User: Fold this.
Amino acid sequence: MRGALLPPQLTAITSTRAGSLTIFIVRRILWMVPILFFVILITFTLMHLAPGSPWDKAGGRQLSDTVVNNLNIRYGLNKPVPQQFLLYISSVVHFDFGLSYQYQGKTVSGLLLESWPYTATIGVLAFLLIIPVGVGLGVLAALRQNTRVDYITMGFATVAASFPNFVIGALMVVALSVLAYKATGGNFFLPAAGFGVDDHLIMPVVTLALLPIAYTARLTRASTLETIRQDFVRTAWAKGLPERLVVIRHILKNSLIPVVTTLGPTFAFLVTGSVIVETVFSIPGIGRAFVVAIESRDYPMILGTTVLFSLVIAVANLIVDVAYVFIDPRVRLT
Amino acid sequence: MALPAAANIEELSAWEVSEKQIGLWSDALQRFRRNRLAIAGAVLIGILVLVAFGSPLLVHLGIIADPIKQHVEFIEAGPGQNGYALGADELGRDTLSRLLFGSQVSLAVGIMVQAIILPIGLLIGLTAGYFGGRIDNLLMRFTDIWYAFPDLLFVLVVVSVFGPSLLTIFGAIALVNWVGLARLVRGQVLSIKEKEFVEAARSSGSSPAKLILKHLLPNSLGPIIVTLTFGIPNAIFLEAVLSFLGVGIQPPTPTWGQMVFDGYEAIYANPSSVVFPALAIGFTLLAFTFVGDGLRDALDPRMRR
Assistant:
């Protein structure tokens, strides 16, 4: 069907799997453009729907008309809104998100670059924790189905999936910082805030990773239970392969496929989770900067952070979609 | 379809009624009752509803303290001290009383948001699924874009723009949640409208309105109920996060998220002021999840034994 619509030289490309894969990837990358455009459009429109001007509460007093005029000129707010939008789009393409309202003389890109390493460190560590722990627990529960191991693992997963992460974070601080400090007389406790030493990373990373771990464990358990009932697994057992080989080579390889599809949403969760975790543990990352911007109505900062977050999520989804095609050759490229 | 061998009318009807017929709903109720976790969740939710409606009465009768009244001499009192069963907060207000009153906001958000998204999701989902074409295409493209936009960020942006009133918070949470319901209804309608009984109704001259109201809607009711049930904890969670980040429903109205936020400032002096509201949020969400799981298992015909 597709071949008929394309010029002859392209028909040759699409007839091979590698060729249709290329077209699939290109189309997926192009699809990101309208998505990001609408994310910017929606956020931008919302910002301009806000009642009052951004200078209403500046410095806690009424500014004179001259000052307001000068501020509007400096931040480009004197131009018509559609023109502002087009200017914004053209500068976003160059990774220029404008000036922050809240911090005089600082650019949004500069602020994002400053806070990026904190968010990335915690996010990457959490991501590295999710796959082995989540998959490990899921496979373990499935192999020991309806035993105590299964019940405890799934009970933990259900609770971890229902409790919000700021609740888990706060409860962990009470247990591991406050009560541990009091019980050991200050000899053992985890720091509740800050960033620097390795100790600072433990609770934020665990808090962020717990919910995706729970989801991954539940999904892995379900898909593993399906896999171990298949004929090729029975054959593997029957021909006397050791348990380790059956699990790794036959069961894990197949039960991991549905897990890969959840990595996109997992990544999105890590991004939004950073907003909460960085607030709980006072980490100066992008999530914390977003909350501060929300509180002080720093619109360029809110807009810039939203665009960055959406871009990260879109790229993550793209990578997952493409990876999925390589992992599961049965996937149809449409 | 193969009929029993001696298929005269009397025998056939006798054969049909020999087994006791159970409808979908009574069957679902039976299976829901057998699910112990779901029943525990339902009981907890029942208690919460009683607490939400009963706490003003308890204050009136003098059984619990006023949740807003301050007693500065008892600031950060621990649990059991000075007659405070669960202690007092950083402004000297009774934690127990604030905890009981906090259930009002959580339940109101959970249920009001579903009440807002139900008509929107039904209308758009039914239209897109039944008529297809351009409306359907538009909806699907729209949901694609919507899913790229993390819902917590969107709610935060809307609340920061329009201010943290109860109406804004309900509206913002509903705005990010109706898409899921619309998509589900569309999918249900798409699969049901191909079934033979719908074809039969259509060919015997039913109007589109009658087809939708008598056939498509009742047959997709199960998944809709399940989706709405799971939507409740999600809405409660979003409201709690807003309060915890300090941009939610404004003081002095007691909400659990705000209590965690307030207690967090003095967590070393008085950890219990964080623990109780945190557990209240956690167990409320757990209860709704159990009920949602129970309903899903009970209403899914494939799970029937």
Q: What stands out?
A: Chain A touches chain B through 49 residues (CB under 8 Å). The mean pLDDT of chain A is 81. Chain A is about 75% helix and 0% strand. Residues 108-143 of chain A form the longest helix (36 residues).
